[in-house]
Design goal:
It contains 13 helices and 15 strands. With 427 residues, it is of the alpha/beta class. It has a seven-stranded mixed β-sheet, sandwiched between helices. It has a four-stranded mixed β-sheet with strand order 1-2-3-13. The structure holds pyridoxal-5'-phosphate.
């Protein structure tokens, strides 16, 4: 064996050590990564259009994050905030309060993963309202724990064979302009609200929980007006309107939070991914009266808001401010969208280019129809991987190619990535 194991050697070890249920998009193993690129153990360079699924918004191994983590591990690594608290936890909560939409009084709490944040948002909403029902949407993705599996829409691979799922979770139709016959935002909201009122009962609803732009479900951008109408209904019904900004948050869509594009002020916001600059941390932030309804000791966990993750998060947020990464995401959109639109104009198999900021996607269909084409989608993704471009697929029908470059990606890498994509689509 070579001193540094090759991807092939690691693949063999993996097959007898790592559970099959944990799969990877590519078979190459990472050696180093920085900014907008990765290098694998075989010495191959990759352009990163994945960001570890919308995590490394500030770039991989971002200098400020690395320095903050190094300094923190030398001071202390863990005390558990519920046992012996420390400043950085408070500081991250202050940042969440400051950065999320809404001028009202807020509180925040920290967790480890997106799914855990969603679970806690539901706990808080149920406790505060004294109600049980949770409304989720078609194509939603909220995680893989028992409650969040119930809220996630897609069976394979996320839910298949893993039931029974948590009760009191209800699914209603999403606004999906390509696939709902062109309903306006108001019409799509009326359809969802009618179903909530008739099938659940407004007075039973604790929370309406939605991704402002759906992630795993296909980068679905609801029609304008849909989110404000649903949020307005929830407020009127005394339910918490919860924006799951785990994938969309922290500058990804060209704003600090995607809720801002539609001027909505969620009662609660869930965050994770980009917030930690690559370290695991998540949060729930929102109206003080909801957050503080929970009794002391009702929220928490051993590692939630771990000091190393908090240090990374503060450094990541500082980097986002300093480099204006919301502006960078807008610039990425300005660079990518015309190219994607050009590809779509020349290719009847691309039904739509959509997304916001550096969260863009194309949906592939059989020409002349809107029948999904997951086979071609997978083939294009594989062709990109073979040429060194890391892209991901998504969507209920597996027919969406999504692009999530780090927000610090350099222009030449972005251009090369787009060229690889163009060749992959043509092939
Ligand atoms: C919108 C959304 N919510 C929740 C989650 C779950 O986050 P995690 O994988 O950190 O549990 C994800 C992850 O992709 C997500 O995109």
């Amino acid at each position: 064996m070579s001193p540094v194991p090759t991807s092939e050697e690691l693949g063999k070890r993996r097959s007898i050590a790592v559970a099959r249920g944990v799969s990877s998009v590519v078979s190459s193993y990472v050696d180093t990564a920085s900014g907008g690129g990765l290098r694998d153990v075989d010495g191959r360079e990759w352009i990163d259009f994945a960001s570890g699924i919308a995590v490394t918004n500030v770039g991989n191994a971002a200098p400020r994050v690395v320095e903050a983590v190094r300094a923190q591990v030398e001071r202390f690594t863990h005390t558990c905030f519920m046992v012996a608290p420390y400043e950085s936890y408070v500081a991250v909560c202050e940042q969440l309060i400051d950065l999320t939409p809404g001028e009202f009084e807020k509180r925040a709490a920290l967790f480890n993963s997106g799914a855990e944040a969603v679970e806690n948002a539901v706990k808080i909403a149920r406790h505060a309202t004294g109600r049980q029902a949770v409304v989720a949407f078609d194509h939603a993705y909220h995680g893989r724990t028992n409650l969040t599996m119930a809220m996630t829409a897609k069976a394979m691979p996320y839910k298949y064979g893993f039931g029974p799922f948590a009760p009191e979770v209800y699914r209603v139709p999403m606004s999906y302009p390509l696939r709902d016959g062109g309903l306006s935002g108001a019409e799509a909201a009326a359809r969802a609200i009618d179903m909530i009122e008739k099938q659940i009962g407004a007075g039973n609803v604790a929370a309406v929980l939605i991704e402002p732009i759906q992630g795993e479900g296909g980068f679905v951008v609801p029609a304008p007006g849909f989110l404000p109408a649903v949020a307005g209904w929830a407020r009127g019904a005394g339910a918490a309107f919860v924006a799951d900004e785990i994938q969309t948050g922290f500058c990804r869509t060209g704003a600090w939070f995607a809720s801002e594009h539609e001027g909505i002020e969620p009662d609660l916001v869930t965050t994770a991914k980009g917030m930690g600059g690559g370290l695991p941390i998540a949060g729930v932030v929102g109206r003080a009266e909801l957050m503080d309804a929970v009794h002391a000791g009702g929220l928490g966990g051993t590692y939630g808001g771990n000091p190393v993750a908090c240090a990374a998060s503060l450094a990541a947020i500082e980097t986002m401010r300093e480099l204006d990464l919301a502006g960078a995401a807008q610039a990425i959109e300005a660079r990518m969208r015309p190219v994607l639109a050009g590809l779509a104009a020349a290719d009847p198999g691309i039904a739509e280019v959509r997304g916001r900021g550096a969260m863009l996607a194309i949906e592939l269909v059989r020409p002349g129809t809107i029948d999904p084409d997951p086979v071609r989608t997978s083939a294009v993704a594989h062709a990109c991987h073979a040429a060194g471009l890391l892209v991901l697929t998504c969507g209920t029908y597996g027919n969406v190619l999504r692009f999530l470059p780090p927000l610090v990606i350099a222009e030449p890498e972005l251009t090369r990535g787009l060229e690889v994509l163009e060749r992959a689509l043509q092939a």
